[in-house]
């Protein structure tokens, strides 16, 4: 998985430009309950062996919250972020250029864009999230259709990318290798999550 994912990631990562070099400053405050950039639901799904096994990944820091999860074993692991902070909601991200992710990862993984109409199953539109070798970095991930494809082992999606981005329910991080992950930020171009 590492060699194919590394090559895939190298092709997809965008060089910084004036449009995507740094995330926008937060225009609103964090939510009253734990959140990262107003995203309140960072969840271990129970799929794959993870620490924690299920439930919220959010842990307090001196300045707010971060999400931490460890993937164990050589098996598929699944971490979910609900984009509108509740499972039943969906978001139209078709006017967004993408998102800035502040994270650290000890191995490569993917993030899938899952729509409300095709939520279940691994055959989803995905983009590569490269390892940071444990360092915290901020990277921009584009919503250009050519930046998203299927994870070869999980199958091709039956729905279009246009459907996925216009009916987005969540971003789902998936990986098949042991990994130590920390998420500290996720900001979108032209989208601010609502607090619940």
What does this structure look like?
The chain is built from two helices and 13 strands, in the order αβββββββββββαββ. It is mainly beta and 196 residues long. The protein has one domain: Galactose-binding lectin (Jelly Rolls). The model is unreliable at 6-18 (pLDDT under 50).
Q: What are the SSEs and their pairings?
A:
Blueprint: H1 2-12, E1 42-45, E2 50-51, E3 54-56, E4 58-60, E5 65-71, E6 77-82, E7 98-105, E8 109-115, E9 125-129, E10 137-142, E11 149-150, H2 161-166, E12 168-175, E13 179-188
Antiparallel strand pairs: 1-3, 1-6, 2-5, 4-5, 5-13, 6-12, 7-10, 7-13, 8-9, 8-12, 9-11
> Which residues form runs of ≥5 with pLDDT under 50?
6-18
N/C terminus separation: 38 Å
Outline: globular
Tell me the radius of gyration: 15 Å
Mind summarizing the main beta sheet?
7 strands, antiparallel
* Helix fraction bin: under 10%
The CATH homology group name = Galactose-binding lectin
Total strands: 13
CATH-defined topology: Jelly Rolls
Strand order of the largest sheet: 3-1-6-12-8-9-11
* Helix/strand structural class: mainly beta
CATH architecture: Sandwich
- Total helix count? 2
The sequence of SSEs as H and E is HEEEEEEEEEEEHEE
CATH class: Mainly Beta
Arithmetic mean of pLDDT: 91
Number of self-contained structural domains: 1
Strand content: 35-45%
Q: Key features?
A:
196 residues, mainly beta, 2 helices, Jelly Rolls, globular, 7-stranded antiparallel beta sheet
């Amino acid at each position: 998985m590492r060699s194919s994912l590394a090559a895939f990631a190298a092709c997809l990562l965008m060089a910084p430009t004036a449009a995507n070099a740094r995330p926008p400053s937060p225009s609103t405050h964090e939510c009253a309950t734990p959140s990262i950039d107003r995203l309140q639901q960072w969840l271990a799904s129970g799929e794959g062996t993870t620490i924690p096994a299920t439930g919220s990944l959010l842990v307090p820091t001196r300045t707010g919250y971060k999400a931490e999860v460890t993937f164990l074993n050589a098996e598929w692991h699944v971490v979910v972020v609900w984009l509108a902070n509740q499972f039943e909601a969906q978001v139209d991200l078709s006017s967004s250029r993408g998102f800035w992710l502040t994270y650290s990862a000890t191995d490569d993984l993917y993030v899938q864009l899952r729509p409300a109409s095709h939520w279940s199953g691994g055959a989803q539109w995905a983009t590569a999230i490269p390892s940071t070798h444990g360092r915290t970095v901020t990277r921009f991930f584009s919503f250009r259709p050519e930046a998203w494809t299927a994870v070869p082992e999980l199958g091709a999606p039956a729905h279009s990318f246009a459907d996925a981005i216009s009916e987005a329910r969540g971003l789902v991080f998936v990986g098949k290798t042991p990994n130590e992950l920390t998420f500290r930020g996720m900001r979108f171009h032209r989208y601010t999550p609502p607090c619940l």
